[in-house]
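User: I'm putting together a small comparison set for a docking exercise, and I want a reference complex before I start. The sequence is below, and the ligand is protoporphyrin IX containing FE. Could you produce the 3D structure with the ligand included, as structure tokens?
Assistant: Of course. I'll restate your input first, then give the structure tokens for the complex.
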Amino acid sequence: MPVDWWAIVFNPSFPYRLTHMVIAAYLTTAFVVGGVGAYHLLRRTSPSRAGTMFSMAMWMAAIVAPIQIVVGDVHGLNTLEHQPAKVMAMEGHFDSHPEGAPLILFGLPNQAEKRVDYAIQIPKLSSLILKHDLNAPLAGLDTIDDDKEPPVAVVFWSFRVMVALGFAMLGVGLFSLWCRWRGTLFENRLLHRVALAMAPAGFVAVLAGWITTEVGRQPYTIYGHLLTADSISPIAAPAVAASLIAFIIVYFVVFGAGTFYILRLMARLPRDPMPDLDDGPIRTSGITPTAQTEGGRDGL
Ligand code: HEM
């Protein structure tokens, strides 16, 4: 039994996880809002409303994406301290490097042979990032028992998807700053197309980050203390299957309806101009009649 629940909640990775996750939520929202704004700008409808949402979203991307990259980097240093095997898997380091470890950009982790096939790597850069010293030694998975290694390929790739999307978000933010500076934020169709394509990027990055975290922790539920195999509750398989099926059905219905509804809202034209707020109350939702005959400010 745990001695102190607060010590579990405020564990050493808590501030890093909280900050990284909150920023991830802001970025995810910004890219959805930016994507919807871009969609309407591309259809050349309602430039003022669509432009406002697009402009605000691009400010958020330009300011917050670089912060997320720095926070992610610091988060990684904390992970190296407390869950080193996870970082070894993220980096694809099967071997220890006593005189500086390379940064493997891409490659195919081959866990059976304990190497990364077709690796494209930059010498010593991983030591520089993780230890701030080109020649700092870095331990690899060869220091970990085989049965205590996480599944490397999943962690290696999910980490790269997250980081690549982080840099893509930074790229969109910088592109928008450049267009803003040139006075073409609302005219540059390439920027609008890229922003539209990036609309789901936050969701994908969050899922990739979550997979990195959870798969990278394996085979432990509590790193170094409790194996996942020992964490299983004594519940019969049919009961687990029944609740899983119930979850699938409920989630399918709830998320299906929610997605359908949100996509319809996104496709709706932003209404221009804003009605005068002195005209009367604004209808919020449901069947409440509005003071205006046209359906209130949000037009729902
Ligand atoms: C260069 C950019 C990034 C770096 C270096 C980075 C770094 C990291 C690291 C090291 C972890 C795993 C830590 C651990 O489990 O110990 C992580 C997890 C995570 N990342 Fe990133 N990240 C970056 C970009 C992003 C972006 C753009 C998003 C989303 C918009 C994101 C969302 C997440 C999430 C949701 C987790 C899981 C957090 C948790 O469950 O505690 N990351 N990131």
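Residues 47-82 form the longest helix (36 residues). Residues 13, 17, 20-21, 24, 27-28, 68-69, 72-73, 75-76, 79, 83, 86, 162-163, 165-166, 169, 202, 205-206, 209-210, 212-213, 216 surround protoporphyrin IX containing FE (CB under 6 Å).
User: Thanks, that's exactly what I needed.
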